[in-house]
Design a protein that fits this description.
The structure is a homodimer. Chain A is built from ten helices and 13 strands. Chain A is an alpha+beta fold.
Chain lengths: 335, 335
């Protein structure tokens, strides 16, 4: 089963040491990092702590056949940072819990950790602790991310009110098209590279979340980890409101649209039901519109698109050229 | 595969709702609990945050054949609270990441959650968030626990100095004997009940850790998640010191001692190498002895026992009636 370069041949302490040597020096507010029974961290002054946890399981959330190890590490952290972004939180700290099959190659583990640390470095997230255990089952990477928000300036799912505008960042459906392309192995001459990259290495919208929260430019916000359709339903449910979305406004990238059309799928429906987008879906009240303009000016290249309106009806509906229909239920990872 | 009462037949949202309804109302410092993209928590004033994460994997850390579901939930939280205890931290918050096989019964999941929540309630820990995903592999419960410590009053592994006394709480080896008894199925007339209970529902030494830290009564501290032998090595390594332990002083409970003797094992060696004790191992300098006396008076029924002395030699040795020998390496979960 195990070879000299597998994790089973290495032992827990040596694996912890391997990871510790790859972690850059801690920022000054990390009082005690990796190596003791727990990590000790100075909270951000005059702020609240924000906590989220999310696990990626091999065979459920990724397939090692087409997901390079660095992308596994990137995604495992990105899905957590995306949750912090949806709260308008600044990420600070991560804990990494690795559940490793005995035959995992050390080189793959190293690449997983490096993929995670590269994203962490870009967002100034300190890896302060974690846990390593073996498993007779699939590889599982569980991360807890901790951020900070100014008091009374965090975003929730529950603040959308009838009349608010509905906005979404970036494109939706690219990750779903990219995943489908990766699964099919049918990539032709790099045409799907951007979509595959969107699936493999999603970019958590930390800066957008921070700007929306600080400027008070959004009444509600959720990230699209399970796709736009799911995000719309979550937002409506938490806000006890209805939503109507203009299908023609839903931002589906040209390459994703082409993929869906070539595979006999309605591009907007396919994009809405696809998961793993990690964009932000947020609502903007009438008095917040000027603030959103100012956020958009600061944002730079990331597009945000208005896709609909909050209603009082308690239904979640999609307007298309052919009429109106309910937005389908989102993807549920569990089933 | 799935029956109407398995988690696969239930779906992620319904499972989250099931857990949410079992969680008691949050304390006032939980600004936002279960249900949004992340939890928002007020940090303890003038304190530092303490973070730890630990996962239990079926087939590695527990066997469902003899571990009741409530004990699985209890242990998953206890191992994390024990890490906080070793830092002298007061636990405040937990996040629960569940990786569930499709055929897990809903009734078992409910019992797991209830076992966890019962221990959480006793230590005033608020379950503020988590994640649920399915797996084709074994059940895995990953918990992140967050506590708080006064500035400059937390315990580490690295403060032991030559001449310090070495102390341990409670008994060591009971959990190992209890596990062996459970595995063998050889329980006779309830004689091993206390040891089996020590394995199934370990009591994290939160109060002892808090008292040691607040009174400045310990120079170093570590919890015995991987047994006394491992704890001694970890303490020596982190403190760059040596340790000498008096074998006759090691507190092995009478029923555990009997079990080991009946199974041809040296009771002290077996107790030291056994894992899952979750007692605290700590060192006390000459000037801290009066403070420890005051802690012991406050402690009540929990015994603490002096078992040895810190040395300058960099070796970890055991004194027995027959002479001195090195303390064996501890149990490594990974191998």
């Amino acid at each position: 089963m195990s070879t000299p370069s597998s994790v089973a041949a290495t032992g827990e302490r040596a694996l912890i040491d391997l990871i510790r040597t790859r972690v850059p020096p801690s920022p000054p507010w990390v009082t005690l990092g990796i190596g003791d029974d727990a990590a000790v961290v100075e909270p951000e002054p005059r702020s609240l702590d924000v906590f989220t946890t999310d696990a990626l399981v091999e065979g459920v959330h990724f397939d090692r056949a087409f997901t390079p190890p660095d992308a596994i590490g990137h995604r495992a952290l990105a899905v957590n940072l995306s949750d912090l972004a949806a709260m308008g939180a600044r990420p600070r700290v991560a804990l990494l819990s690795l559940v490793l099959p005995a035959d995992l190659l050390l080189s793959d583990l190293t690449a997983i950790v490096d993929g995670l640390l590269a994203l962490a470095a870009r967002h100034k997230v300190a890896l302060v602790g974690g846990n390593i255990t073996r498993t007779p089952g699939p590889l599982c990477i569980d991360i807890t991310a901790v951020g900070s928000v100014h008091r009374r300036k965090f975003l929730t799912r529950s603040g959308a009110r009838p009349g608010d505008q509905i906005w979404v960042s970036g494109h939706v459906g690219s990750a779903a098209a990219g995943l489908a392309s990766l699964v099919s192995g049918a990539r032709t001459a790099g045409a799907m590279t951007a979509c595959e990259e969107a699936y493999l290495r999603p970019e958590p919208r930390i800066r957008l979340g921070l700007l929306l929260a600080r400027n008070g430019a959004a009444s509600a916000c959720v990230d699209l980890s399970d796709g736009l359709a799911d995000g719309l339903h979550q937002l409506a449910l938490a806000s006890e409101a209805g939503l109507v979305v203009d299908g023609q406004a839903v931002p589906v990238a040209a390459d994703a649209r082409e993929w869906f059309v070539a595979h006999q799928a309605d591009p907007v429906m396919a994009a809405m039901r696809g998961g793993d987008d990690y964009e932000l879906l947020f609502t903007v009240s009438a008095r917040q519109r000027a603030r959103l303009r100012s956020v958009r000016q600061t944002l730079g290249s990331l597009a945000v698109t208005r896709i609909g309106t909050v209603t009082a009806s308690r239904t979640v509906r999609l307007k298309t050229a052919g009429g109106e229909c309910p937005v389908p239920a989102g993807y549920e990872h569990f089933r």
